[in-house]
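Internal tracking record. Fields below are filled automatically when a chain is submitted to the structure queue. Please do not edit lines marked as system-generated. If the sequence contains nonstandard residues, flag them in the REMARKS field before resubmitting.
Queue: standard
Priority: normal
Entity type: single polypeptide chain
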Amino acid sequence: MASYPALDLKFALGPGAGTFQDMLYSELDDFEPVAIHEHDAGDSWRVFFRTAAQRDAARITLASEFGHALFRVAAVDVDDEDWARRSQASLTAVRVGSMVVAPPWDIPRTSESRTANRETPIVIVIDPSTGFGTGHHATTRLCLELLQKRDVSGARVIDVGTGSGVLAIAARKLGAARVVAIDNDPDALQNAQHNVVRNETADAIEVVKLDLSTVSLERADIVLANLTASVIQRYAAALQQLVAKDGALILSGFSGDEIEEVARAFQVTLEETLIDGEWAAVLIRNSSD
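SYSTEM-GENERATED OUTPUT FOLLOWS
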């Protein structure tokens, strides 16, 4: 039976928890985790890695950097090749505006609909696998909300850090003419491609392995980036270069406390801000050539 190296992390909730979790995400990014499972209570994660060496290196770094704030940093080996599906088997369909994001085991009867209207929602079926983005996390919902406020019909869209592909699929179902979904995680890319095909959107969505440090794509009318505050700030210039003149950049993956830091990285006035609990999303318009 396959065994997967993982870390169990436990931390305190309360004021500043969103910022602390973002710092954890940022630090973990250096060790290329394949998935992060958040437990129902919200105060603990199980983080999966490709190798035990990556897991062990992450444990040492986290214990050193955040030992005072982490109640538990434990290395574990998780058996069963179906760990991702079992850990997320309790997920149910989530409605966000005119869209429903559903796992394969909870597809609503309206799944035959392919048009957006108030009576019949657009349904996106997402197999969680090891990719991020099931619609249950606030940052995904916030991105979906902002996306639905835009006129997506006929647009070119880029989804940066696509994870499960949910935002790319949403853009296509809202009428985007062409979508490029990029990620640098092979597992996420495989999961995204699977979901793209499952939702019958492969005709207009291209799933590509790219890194923000080297990305070079034709500019898009809408760019989506659900990352972390530190990653967004580090690659602010690269993200801006992806947005066409008068296009929109939708960002999430950070807390409300970090909105000003994100805005400063782009040196712009935010056009719109949404808050869901401790999480935030913003929309920036590119007014320059």
